[in-house]
Design goal:
The protein is α/β, with parallel strands linked by helices and about 210 residues long. It has one domain: Rossmann fold (3-Layer(aba) Sandwich), CATH 3.40.50.1240. It is built from 4 helices and 6 strands, in the order E-H-E-H-E-H-E-H-E-E. The relative contact order is 0.22. This is Histidine phosphatase superfamily (Branch 1).
Length: about 210
Amino acid sequence: MQGTSPAQPQSIMIIRHAEKPAGTIQGNNLYGAIDKHSLTPMGWQRAGALCVLFAAQGAPVRQGVVTPTAIFASGVEHDSTKSLRPEETVVPVAALLNGVAESSFLPGPPPSSLVVPLNGGYTLGNERDLVKAVLALTGNVLIAWQHQNIPAITQQIIQQAQVSNPDDIPSQWPDGRFDMVFVFTRSSAGYTFAQVPQLLLPGDSSKPFPA
């Protein structure tokens, strides 16, 4: 475990990608075509609603949730996962913050000259390097990832930085939940972890995940 340094972000926020296909509910890409690797219509609703949290003007909508200055989403790696959902989940936020069309991001890599960059260069299983890159930044960082590997991200934050309350961090992200933000906020004692409910769509829960 290492201590915080001036080069580390003030806030690291982690979300699961939005709703995915299940049963007869199909995924649709940005242009509406059926795509099993994309978000469902409800997932796209959540992706748009996340702008309320992360691109709000003025005071934060939820305590601890702030506007990101950099965004990361797990990229597509054809030999392991073809999921577009993490990137799709944050495209509306990135588009709004950068003043560009959502179609600027998908398909293909994000534009290189963005005020708030969207980095899709880290793939599932590459959480160690992801966290190393995140901790080299300043400002506020938003990460969108697959839920089964979010605990790997939190463990890397514990290992690579100082966290004052590591026992409060859940060891798993529940399979049926898409409605939470994990927030690491920096202070003089290091990072403090908190769970912040999104409360954006009908059915979203304020119940925290068990630690």
